[in-house]
Design brief:
Length: 117
Amino acid sequence: MNVMIPKSRKISRKDFPQDFHKCFKYHSPSLFLLVKKQENNTMRSRFSVVVSKKVSKSAVSRVLLKRRAYNIIKAKVENIKPGFLCVFYFKKGSERLGFNDVEKEMVQLLNKAKITN
């Protein structure tokens, strides 16, 4: 099973939001979501997941968190409105979360940001 989202749904380095003060920020206990409105509202929403070494020194656990997040995004992508850049950041302690916990927090953040249908 391919858990990664298509390249067209990922945020490229040049489009990565550098001006964080212009982004909307949403927090949960283990995740942090940055949402930036794209200039072209008809473009499909794109996503990125960031897991820093502060979360876990182990590359295996960082990749596991990323795969879980992208798998959740892939399942929920049809319910997300077009025209947004969404960056999920994992916080310290989130390496202990299970798949269902990550999914619950990601869905709550997307609902809080009001970008789901």
